Amino acid sequence: MYDGRVVVVDHPMVQHKLSILRDARTSSMQFRELVRELAMFEAYEATRDLPLEDAVVQTPLATAWCKTISGKKLAIVPILRAGLGMVDGVLQLIPAARVGHLGMYRDESTHKPVPYYAKLPEDIASRAVLVVDPMLATGGSAISAVRYLREQGVSGTLKVMVIVAAPQGIEALLAADDDLVIYTCSVDDGLNDDAYIVPGLGDAGDRIFGTK
Ligand code: PRP
Ligand code: URA
Questions:
Q1: Whose CA is nearest to atom 3 of ligand 1?
Q2: Which tens digits make up the pLDDT trace of 160-170?
Q3: Which of 113, 121, 178, 205 could form a disulfide with 98 if both were Cys (CB 3.0 to 4.6 A apart)?
Q4: Overall domain count for the chain
């Protein structure tokens, strides 16, 4: 399904943490921590195909023929606000990555994204990019982010890391860009009349920042 362009991270630890994340009783403090941890696990999967080059290391005993990561440098691009909650988890795995920010919110009646901020590393066009946002609902926000990144010259495979995705968002996002892979912890049932993911986990931004 989805021609290998969607990776569901189904590790037991991930699925266990996702269950707690979904629970309406989970506090903002715990929610934030879980989003950070899930982002780190997902980043592990999303970096599985990074190219390696040979390296020679002198251990205390002998010469070791090793591998180190090569290829393009990485940039993490969170979609504000909720994507911010995933940044530290990814940075734990890739501390040298640069971070760009794309701000947008969904209009409550049209459900379309309204962009309000963009700040990317100057050399974004030469970097491999991981877009992070916990929720992929209609796909509008992620599509807007991907289009903007392509306009800024980002080339090659774009990776979009979410925590919960709706089938509608997955299909729309895959159709919007030919060279993109989605990482998610779950593909949920669908969307409700307010374009919220069902069963989902509610409003990710509000739960991360305690604004409701
Ligand atoms: C949420 C979420 C995504 C978007 C997903 O953000 O974090 O960015 O909605 O919906 P879509 O796939 O239908 O575009 P929201 O607009 O609520 O803003 P916030 O992160 O500032 O709360
Ligand atoms: N944004 C969220 O935070 N949650 C959803 O279910 C849909 C959009």
A1: 135
A2: 999 999 999 99
A3: 121
A4: 1
